[in-house]
Amino acid sequence: MTQSLLTLFSAGIWWVIYSSAIAVVPALIVWLSLRWLEKTPVVFNRAYLASLLWALAAVLTGGLVIAAQHGRAPGASIFTLPWMRASLVVDMLLGAWLVWWMVPRVDARRVKPTSACMAVALVMVVAMVVGTAIRR
């Protein structure tokens, strides 16, 4: 009983540590793209917080990807599964909502939803390019 609780606690700690390290690059991309799209400065620490929450959800989704590949042929695309494509869309919608909801401009107004969607799309493009380059 105690061993399983300690294992679960340790997994939760590592989940947060890895997600906080992973969230730095998306936060920089979001911050730079929102500065460019909104033509006014945005708050970086809120961009990092939104990216951190998004990364926590993405790492959890990544665990589902690893579980979905169990028993499949190596090298098979995970995007052939319709629920995997749907989880990617839900992940992008969550990211756009978090960026729109959490990242203010310095004039205390929210960023435009289209800017939040574009920032999330840029992060996803970079993630797909890096993921494809690492896999090959």
Can you walk through the features of this model?
By secondary structure, the chain is mostly helical. The protein has one domain (2-135). It is 78% helix and 0% strand. It has helices at residues 2-22, 24-38, 44-69, 82-102, 113-135. Helix 2 (24-38) packs across helix 5. The model has no long low-confidence stretch (mean pLDDT 87).
Write the layout of secondary structure elements.
Elements: H1 2-22, H2 24-38, H3 44-69, H4 82-102, H5 113-135
Helix pairs in contact: 1-3, 2-3, 2-5, 3-4, 4-5
Feature tags:
136 residues, mainly alpha, single chain, 0% strand
Element-level helix/strand string:
HHHHH
Q: Alpha-carbon distance between the termini?
A: 42 Å
* Total helical segments: 5
Taking all residues together, what is the mean pLDDT? 87
